[in-house]
Amino acid sequence: MSDESTTATPALQFAQYLCFKADDEWRRLPQAKREAGREAFARVVEEAAPEITTYSYSTIGFKSDADLLLWRKGFSPDAMQEMTAQLLQTGIGVYFRPTHSLFGFTRVSTYTRRLTAQEQAIDEAQRKQYLVVYPFSKTTEWYLMSKEARQGMMNEHMRIGHSYADVSQVLLYATGLDDQEFVVAYETNDLARFQSLVIDLRDTEARRYTLRDTPIITAVHKPLRTALAMIG
């Protein structure tokens, strides 16, 4: 359910999906030091609120180059950068290496008059069990088509997406800010059902104009201290 927009709006939210991989040396530290290191890291996250809201996920066993994913949202990219710097200098963060960083702004879609609750998942207070996030870019040919042609293909794309109302979506615009144009994230309580959605979307005409949609990062929503404890 990806699209693009050129309409600027005030107070755009800035969001980031940031993955960390812990150095093997971390697990060799004494237990007391690891406990203190995890707690110090968690306090930095908590103290950044409410300016920055953070949701935590475990990627252990799903992505070989990631142990933890933090989904953060706020209105200041600078504040988020400062928070990241502090995290990397605190407790377990000293042993963390950022491995994936996907970020962008929320924007109003040019293909829908009004977003559904399914497409406004970034504002939900409760997160679903699973998160699947990936970068996304369209081909040059897509943008050279008429708006009407693109609208027709997006109507088909969105119709299929809306038939999976239990799968929520967040779309970020990264055009001009990073290597990809968009960041697409889905939330679901059923990974097999989400996979069915992806299979159905691959049969749409708009799929011809996908340039990139990898790497795909799958994560499980966990309380931060639980996710950190799973690392060791």
How many structural domains can be distinguished in the coordinates? 2
Level-2 CATH architecture of the largest domain: 2-Layer Sandwich
Measured by DSSP, the beta-strand proportion falls in 25-35%
CATH C-level label of the largest domain: Alpha Beta
Sheet/helix structural class: alpha+beta
Number of strands: 9
- Rough shape? elongated
The major beta sheet can be summarized as:
9 strands, antiparallel
Written account of the structure:
- By secondary structure, the protein is of the alpha+beta class.
- It has 2 domains: 14-104 and 221-231, Alpha-Beta Plaits; 109-219, Alpha-Beta Plaits (2-Layer Sandwich).
- The chain has 6 helices and 9 strands, in the order βαββαββααββαββα.
- The protein has helices at 31-47, 77-87, 140-144, 147-162, 191-201, 224-231; strands spanning 14-22, 53-58, 68-74, 96-105, 130-138, 168-173, 182-188, 210-212, 217-221.
- Residues 4-9 have low confidence and may be disordered.
Quickly list its features:
2 domains, nine-stranded antiparallel sheet, alpha+beta, elongated, 232 residues, 6 helices, Alpha-Beta Plaits
Task: Summarize this entry quickly.
This protein is an alpha+beta fold and 232 residues long. The chain is 29% helix and 27% strand. It folds into 2 domains: 14-104 and 221-231, 2-Layer Sandwich (Alpha-Beta Plaits), CATH 3.30.70; 109-219, Apc35880, domain 1 (Alpha-Beta Plaits).
Q: Which SSEs are present, and which pair or pack?
A:
Blueprint: E1 14-22, H1 31-47, E2 53-58, E3 68-74, H2 77-87, E4 96-105, E5 130-138, H3 140-144, H4 147-162, E6 168-173, E7 182-188, H5 191-201, E8 210-212, E9 217-221, H6 224-231
Antiparallel strand pairs: 1-3, 1-4, 2-3, 2-9, 5-7, 5-8, 5-9, 6-7
Helix pairs in contact: 1-6
